[in-house]
Description:
0% of the residues lie in helices and 59% in strands. It is mostly beta strands.
Amino acid sequence: MLKIAVKKNTKTNAAKTAAKVVDVNEYVVVDYPKNLENITSRHYSVRIGSSDCTGVDISVNDQPWQPCRYAVGYWWYDWNNFQPGTHQLVARMHKRNGEYLISKRRRCKVN
């Protein structure tokens, strides 16, 4: 199913708008850890769900993107050597047309 998104250009006349076709079936989401989940081990596999894509990366605490591996229908990031405290995870999906789709920010706590 396709959805038309209309974005107004504020730099020019408000009557002029640009339309872009957005596929509402495209998604990328950090499945695990759940939001504000407590992680008690020093090694954790982050699970990322996505629609059809060519690859997925993850950024932990706004650090550089790290590639994820694909297995059993999900993308995985083997996270280790992290410090106690609150961390933020964001996933980036590589679409087939060369564009990216960014997930919502997911926070977790490490004890």
